[in-house]
Model the fold of this input.
Amino acid sequence: MRHLIVILSAGTSVLTSPVAAQQPGDLVASGPVAAAPAGMQAWRVRYWTTRQDGVRQEVTGMVVAPREAIPPRPRRVIAWAHGTSGVVEKCALSTNPDFFTATAGLEQAIREGYVVVAPDYPGLGSPMPHPYLVGGDTAHSVLDAVRAARSIPGAAAGGKFAVWGESQGGHAALWTAARARSYAPDLTLVGTAAAAPPTELAENMRKASEPNVRALLMGFTMYSWSQRFGYSMDGILGKVNQDVARKLAENNCLSLDASPRLATIIGILSLRGALKNKDLGRIEPWAKAMRANSVDAASVPGPLLIAQSVRDPLVAPDVTKKFAKSVCRQRTAVRWIDLPGGDHAHTARDSAVETLAWIGARFDGQAPPNDCRRI
Done:
């Protein structure tokens, strides 16, 4: 609980001059961000993507590049997939004043010459249901953000990219890797880094050891999937707690290092009691959606880096390690980083130096390290 804070952000875009765009990855608009830190230039963007069922959507994000002369060759790109910020429109990170300090490794990445492309995901910053932990929808928004960044002349973004994500974004990164070749053959993925990624969603929900945050995230999932897929919460929650789940989702955006409001705490405790002994992984149609949106190890190309705290209270380390072993059985090179302690929220930050070095080596064409024998 101490890692959650409610942010009531406006979610208002500063983008201007919309352009008629029809294809996934087409840039609709971009607007410079005056508050970009020294050495950086940034644009809030709107661009087109498609859901996994082919429905076209206009979504938002941020593109950050070095503030220097355009290089003779296109810049290397890192697609950053952020962790859970909420499940409604106002929770977009591209409009959050803490974006530049909260994005793991951003300063180092820009200093090393990367373009960092940070999609908000559908429904965050855009008026549609947010597909929380829905793999295909989120992966498409990440891939199309990389495409859209290439239309910003000052960014000078190339078509080669690495994807790096944390928590919800780790799940998104793995799905992005799985979909990259078929959905965006015009892009070249050089490597995938996932920090504390949910991989087998039902097991991740069962084994989260922090009960309050687990209850909140289950509430977020139910609200999101009821909106995205039309699922009913009847039979899982009574009418009162359905309203609690809705209010928690609609009123709360998440950040780090502060305590939530009293009303939020009371709502979480109510939801926690209502969800006791309820397993969405065994209740249809929720279970089917969890299976469909878990990560298939055989579909994730290498090379792959996974960072995981050894006592993570939200993403159980044994679930992540089981996934890594499955990837290894595909003869895919996996770099495994064990982080001490039980900090979930800073997994990407705490492994950023090693992760960025690993990403740089992938762009340089070096042979990837492989920890499969010790995982």
